[in-house]
Amino acid sequence: MFIIFPLFSANLISIIIGISVLIFGIGLAYSSFITHEISGALSSVMGIFGIVMIIFGLCFIFAINAISFLVGLQFYIVAFMLIMIAVVGFLSDSNVARTGALLYLVLGIVILLIAMFAAENPILITIILGVILIAQGIMGLIYGNEI
Predict the structure, then answer these.
(1) What are phi and psi of 6, to 5 degrees?
(2) How many CB atoms lie within 10 A of CB 84?
(3) pLDDT by residue (tens digit) across 97-138?
(4) Does the keyword Transmembrane helix apply (predicted)?
(5) Helices and strands, number each (H, E), in the chain
(6) If we measure between CA atoms, which residue out of 55, 51, 49, 56 comes closest to residue 88?
(7) What are the residue ranges spanned by the domains of the chain?
(8) Is residue 92 helix, strand or coil?
(9) By CB distance 3.0 to 4.6 Å, which of 12, 22, 91, 136 could disulfide with 42?
């Protein structure tokens, strides 16, 4: 459909990206309310990050064309998100969260390096995100009742 009518497809993709980022932000904001009694610092970081993600999601849905905005910045945005999630994980009291945070930090730094050297090849980001999701799924299976 992108080849037939690119304007419609670009706007649809922008809306889908916006909805995804909005849901991610709502999830982080909700998690910040849940973890407020456990760790104040963790809750604050998650709340701020969640609000920023909600704002980005709404901008992608209603104002900004996400395709043109993200093409040059996608590596940097994903690296920033992974590094922020790693910071949140390091503030947690759980050893499982700290292990995952170390993985996110390493992958965030790798993506940042890729952003500097290969920002024109978006397939690399897809591969790295796939590896992250697989690793998170495996950690969820192994440490399911501790997370």
Answers:
(1) -65, -30
(2) 19
(3) 777 788 888 888 887 877 776 656 666 667 767 777 787 778
(4) yes
(5) 5, 0
(6) 49
(7) 1-64, 71-147
(8) coil
(9) 91
